[in-house]
C-alpha cells in the first residue's frame, strides 16, 4: 500500500528537517549572527530542498543541502550589496580612525605569498577523501561541532575526530614547513 503524495511529502520533509535543521541553523548563525534570521534561512533551505526533491531524486543530500544554503547566502549578500545601509561606515573613515600600525599594508609581494599559500592548502585539501575534506571544512572552517557533524553524516563522533586529525596531519605534512 502506498501513501498519498501529500503524506509521503510530509514524512520526507520531517525526516529532512530532523536531519538538517540543527546543522543548518548552526551554519547560518555563524554567518548572519542573528538567531531568528538563521532559523528563517534554515527553513527556506529545507523548503527549497523539499521542492527540488519532488521533481528529481537527490543523490547526495548533505552536499545538496549545503550548496543550497551557500547559494541562498550569496543571493542575500548580492541583494544587500545593491542597497547599502545608511548606517554603514565607509572604509576610508575606518582607516583614518584606526591607530597607527593596526592596519597591515597589502603589498603585492604579501598578496602573492598569500595566494601561493592558499593554493597549496587547497591542493592539499583536494588530496584528501571527500568525507575527510568535508568533515575538516565543517569543523575547522565552519566551526560546526563534532557531534553535529557526526549526526549529519551518521557516523560516530570519534570517527569525526579521526577525520579531522587525519586532515590536520596531512595539511601539516604538505604545508607546515613554511
Write the layout of secondary structure elements.
Elements: H1 5-32, H2 35-55, H3 61-82, H4 91-97, H5 108-126, H6 130-141, H7 146-153, H8 157-175
Helix pairs in contact: 1-2, 1-7, 2-3, 5-8, 6-8, 7-8
Secondary-structure content class = mainly alpha
User: What Rg do the Cα atoms give?
Assistant: 21 Å
* DSSP helical segment count: 8
Which of globular, elongated, flat, extended, rod-shaped describes the shape?
globular
The number of E-state strands comes to: 0
Arithmetic mean of pLDDT: 79
Helix fraction by DSSP (H/I, runs of at least 4): over 70%
Q: Tell me the number of structural domains.
A: 2
User: What portion of residues belong to β-strands?
Assistant: under 5%
Query: Runs with pLDDT <50, length 5+?
Result: 94-98
How does the major sheet shape up? Answer: none
Order of helices and strands: HHHHHHHH
Distance between the termini: 63 Å
Features:
single chain; 178 residues; mainly alpha; Arc Repressor Mutant, subunit A; 76% helix; globular
Briefly summarize what is shown.
By secondary structure, the chain is mainly alpha-helical.
Amino acid at each position: 500500500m502506498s501513501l498519498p503524495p501529500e503524506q509521503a511529502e510530509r514524512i520526507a520533509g520531517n525526516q529532512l528537517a530532523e536531519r538538517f535543521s540543527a546543522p543548518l541553523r548552526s551554519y547560518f548563525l555563524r554567518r548572519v549572527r542573528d538567531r531568528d534570521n538563521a532559523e528563517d534561512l534554515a527553513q527556506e533551505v529545507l523548503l527549497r530542498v523539499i521542492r527540488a526533491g519532488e521533481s528529481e531524486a537527490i543523490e547526495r543530500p548533505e552536499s545538496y543541502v549545503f550548496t543550497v544554503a551557500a547559494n541562498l547566502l550569496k543571493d542575500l549578500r548580492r541583494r544587500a550589496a545593491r542597497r547599502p545601509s545608511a548606517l554603514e561606515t565607509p572604509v576610508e573613515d575606518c582607516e583614518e580612525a584606526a591607530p597607527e600600525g593596526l592596519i597591515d599594508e597589502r603589498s603585492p609581494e604579501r598578496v602573492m605569498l598569500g595566494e601561493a599559500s592558499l593554493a597549496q592548502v587547497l591542493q592539499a585539501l583536494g588530496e584528501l577523501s571527500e568525507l575527510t575534506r568535508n568533515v575538516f571544512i565543517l569543523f575547522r572552517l565552519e566551526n560546526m561541532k563534532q557531534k553535529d557533524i557526526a549526526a549529519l553524516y551518521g557516523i560516530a563522533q570519534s570517527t569525526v575526530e579521526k577525520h579531522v586529525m587525519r586532515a590536520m596531519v596531512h595539511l601539516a605534512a604538505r604545508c607546515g614547513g613554511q
